[in-house]
């Protein structure tokens, strides 16, 4: 049976009913098709694509045009999942006007259903302006990779009472600003549980324990397609890299020793026709 398009109301309804929400990253058409067929609720075109697809050292260099290009492909492969486009570094920090304009590109050009941006209380006015323009915003707090240097690296956030209080305040401010959902990355489970309980909007955890309203992982981490490093919070469900490398080595060997292509992979022609050439 064809799935119906997931809506914000349904995501909120899931929280209210205590049903878990699933979110997965995707960056291209074939992945989007598989994510959609798996019945995942929301698909995030994360700026993590800078690292796992484009080979950058961090998410910082990712541009608006790169994001739009990948979002369009995911849009074409997604029938039901709620699509979230990740706003890249410096696409929403320079001015509120620029933020609204860039958020609009995700919706108008790429066909996303919403955008995501990183930051706490200091970004609430930007979230509010984008929402007022009619674009749903998913917030992202805790470890915010675009500003990891400011956080002194990729570390768990909110471990002491003071920083935890700031995250609780940020979550509240972002909800008040109109965010429809909030991603919480790399924060202690107890803090994530407290925020999840206090908010009316759904929380999606990544390295934030099991008590969030839903969970997200990076597709390349879950499938073992990114080998540079694996964060502690990742569960690798399959190691596709090893299968793919094995297939590539078999192809190389079979071409080199004449096994591939066999007659079943080739096209025939009457020999008389060859003589006439
Ligand atoms: O860019 C991304 O993939 C993300 C997720 C890790 C939440 O922001």
Description:
- By secondary structure, the chain is of the alpha/beta class.
- It has one domain (8-243): Phosphoenolpyruvate-binding domains (TIM Barrel, Alpha-Beta Barrel).
- It has eleven helices and eight strands.
- It has helices spanning 8-17, 29-37, 49-52, 64-77, 96-108, 124-132, 161-177, 189-198, 219-222, 240-256, 271-275; strands spanning 21-25, 42-45, 82-86, 114-118, 137-142, 181-185, 203-206, 214-217.
- It has an eight-stranded parallel β-barrel, surrounded by seven helices.
- It starts with 7 loop residues before the first helix and ends with a helix.
- The model has no long low-confidence stretch (mean pLDDT 97).
- 3-methyl-2-oxobutanoic acid binds at residues 25, 44, 46-48, 86, 140, 183, 185, 206, 216, 218.
- 3-methyl-2-oxobutanoic acid binds next to β6.
């Amino acid at each position: 049976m064809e799935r119906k398009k997931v809506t914000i109301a349904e995501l909120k309804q899931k929280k209210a009913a205590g049903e878990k929400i699933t979110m997965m990253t995707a960056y291209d058409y074939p992945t989007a098709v598989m994510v959609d067929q798996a019945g995942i609720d929301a698909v995030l075109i994360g700026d993590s694509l800078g690292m796992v697809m484009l080979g950058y050292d961090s998410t910082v260099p990712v541009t608006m045009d790169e994001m739009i290009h990948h979002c369009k492909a995911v849009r074409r492969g997604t029938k039901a999942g709620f699509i979230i486009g990740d706003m890249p570094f410096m696409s929403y920090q320079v001015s509120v006007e620029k933020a609204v304009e860039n958020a609009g590109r995700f919706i108008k050009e790429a066909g996303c259903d919403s955008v995501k941006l990183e930051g706490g209380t200091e970004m609430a006015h930007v979230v509010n302006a984008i929402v007022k323009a009619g674009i749903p915003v998913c917030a992202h707090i805790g470890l915010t990779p675009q500003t990891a240097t400011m956080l002194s690296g990729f570390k768990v956030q909110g471990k002491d009472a003071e920083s935890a209080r700031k995250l609780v305040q940020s979550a509240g401010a972002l909800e008040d600003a109109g965010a429809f959902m909030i991603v919480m990355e790399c924060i202690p489970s107890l803090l994530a549980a407290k925020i999840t309980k206090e908010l009316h909007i759904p929380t999606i955890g990544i390295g934030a324990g099991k008590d969030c309203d839903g969970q997200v992982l990076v597709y390349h981490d879950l499938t073992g397609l990114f080998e540079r490093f694996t964060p502690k919070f990742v569960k690798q469900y399959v190691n596709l890299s090893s299968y793919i490398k094995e297939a590539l080595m078999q192809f190389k060997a079979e071409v080199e020793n004449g096994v591939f292509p066999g007659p079943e992979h080739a096209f025939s022609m009457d020999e008389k026709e060859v003589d006439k050439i």
